[in-house]
Design brief:
Shape of chain A: flat
Distance between the termini of chain B: 67 Å
Helix content of chain B: 40-55%
Number of helices of chain B: 14
Largest interface: A-B, 57 and 61 residues
Largest sheet of chain A: none
Structural class of chain A: mainly alpha
Strand order of the largest sheet of chain B: 1-2-4-3-5-6-9-10
Oligomer: heterodimer
Order of helices and strands of chain A: HHH
């Protein structure tokens, strides 16, 4: 007596089809993406965007200067100086507080360091 | 006639799933994303983009040698610490390791000047020094993921006496000509990296996300269809949400670092051709002599075998192992497959070398 073959699962078929589509889309899409034409177009578009952004920054900086307001560059300079102050504070803190005794790290019992791997 | 009951079973099952999809689909839209990276830890260093964490030990007796995980600079470190039961950090803590991690935050505008020199000669040495101070040990295992592995290898090659006990790299590229699609994207004839960095300062995360997304143009659509199909399956949805959130949570890169990476590694392939220098110091990977484990994924579309495999021969260690595991770039280290494949093998290799 032979077992009758299982009936086809139409939903499983659709899932397989999705897998096949994904594989084909990735293969075909990757070929397009890897072509010099695609890279040329992509970066040309990007370059136009960058040019527009640079022009907009420049224009905005002039407007802010006219309005006597700090520009993005001015704020970045301030941020850099703040970062330098933070770095100095960190260095001072590190010099006067020993590692592990910082107030942000409450003392916890340290584990022993004698562990060995389980025998095979 | 024998096909009748089977077809009826299929139809019944799909009907039930369709009902559950409707109910759980609403839950999916209404519920917050799972909390990731929640293992208890101390932040030992938080300096601009650079973070060093120390995870709280979960056992009373740990291996002598601490392990320092180094995350790739494009992504968040919580890929190593997803949710309980799917966290490499938690796994290592339970297996008795003292775990530290170098993670990254989005670089600030004023950090656009950071370059490879800062990562290799400042951040990593600072992290290793702090790990040694915290653990009281002179030896450290360093394990880098993707570009974190490149940074770890550069650091190791330039710091021979830094106490490197073991070096582990996951999906780490060394021959950048093997990354064919990234090469095409960064084609020097068309990609004006100087203009990008000079205009924007830091390289935006969206641009990096698009570059990664283009490697598999059909993947996003197929993933969304599969999510809809599996909305009834809580485990699938949980896994999808974790990985989807992580892969979309990319970080910008400091401008100079990005410029240097593109020119030195993508264009000149200097590391593979032994012409790499960091702040004028020549990088020779054969100077790495600590035990070395290099793990790659069979179906890695981001760092294919052609890009990662040569690293084993270039490293000078006598005790070196290459593991090629089933999976992709991300599923190698996180998710249900990693729990079964990578993690136990990592523990088996690392345990006897952490005494």
């Amino acid at each position: 007596m032979t077992t009758p073959p299982p009936s086809p699962d139409p939903f499983g078929f659709l899932r397989d089809a999705l897998g096949q589509w994904e594989k084909l889309a990735n293969e075909y899409g990757s070929k397009i993406v890897a072509s010099p034409d695609f890279a040329r177009t992509l970066h040309k578009t990007g370059a136009v965007g960058l040019q527009a952004q640079a022009a907009s920054h420049e224009g905005m900086a002039k407007l802010l200067s006219l309005a006597n307001l700090p520009s993005r560059t001015d704020l970045e300079v301030i941020a850099e100086r703040l970062a330098a102050v933070e770095a100095s504070l960190a260095r001072i803190e590190a010099a006067i507080v020993p590692p592990g005794a910082a107030p942000t790290a409450p003392a916890r019992p340290k584990p022993a360091r004698t562990r060995r791997p389980p025998s095979p | 006639m024998s096909e009748g009951p089977d077809l009826l079973d299929h139809a019944t099952r799909e009907f039930e799933r369709a009902l559950q999809r409707r109910v759980k689909g609403i839950d999916y839209l209404a519920s917050p994303a799972p909390a990731l990276g929640a293992s208890a830890k101390d932040v030992l260093i938080a300096r601009g983009t650079f973070r060093l964490y120390h995870y709280h030990a979960q056992v009373d007796d740990v291996y002598r040698v601490p392990i320092l995980l180094v995350m790739a600079t494009t992504n968040r470190g919580y890929i190593f610490d997803m949710v309980p039961g799917q966290s490499l950090v938690e796994f290592l803590l339970h297996r008795g390791y003292d775990v530290f991690m170098v993670d990254w935050d989005a670089p600030r505008a004023d950090e656009r000047h950071l370059s490879l020199k800062d990562y290799v000669l400042d951040f990593l040495p600072a992290a290793v020094a702090r790990v040694k101070a915290e653990s009281g040990e002179d030896d450290v295992t360093v394990a880098g993921y993707c570009f974190g592995g490149v940074l770890a290898a550069l650091w190791a090659a330039l710091h021979e006496d830094a106490g490197l006990k073991n070096l582990v790299t996951f999906t780490t590229p060394v021959d950048f000509t093997g990354m064919k699609q990234f090469q095409a994207w960064a084609d020097r004839r068309f990609f004006d990296v100087d203009r990008l960095v000079d205009t924007l300062g830091n390289c935006p995360a969206e641009m990096l996300y698009t570059a990664f997304d283009m490697l598999r143009p059909g993947a996003k659509i197929a993933a969304n269809l599969r999510l809809w199909d599996n909305l009834w399956n809580d485990e699938f949805v949980r896994g999808y949400r974790m990985l989807d959130r992580w892969s979309g949570d990319m970080l910008p890169l400091p401008g100079e670092y990005f410029r240097e990476t593109i020119k030195t590694l993508m264009w000149d392939n200097a590391l593979h051709e032994s012409r790499m220098t960091v702040a004028g110091r020549s990088v020779d990977l054969s100077r790495i002599t600590a035990p070395f484990l290099h793990v790659t994924a069979e179906h890695d579309h981001i760092v294919p075998a052609a890009a990662s495999a040569p690293l084993v021969d270039m490293v000078g260690s006598l005790d070196k192992t290459q593991l090629v595991l089933k999976g992709g770039h991300v599923s190698l280290v996180a998710g249900a497959n990693a729990v079964r494949r990578l993690w136990p093998q990592l523990d088996s290799w690392l345990g006897p070398r952490s005494l």
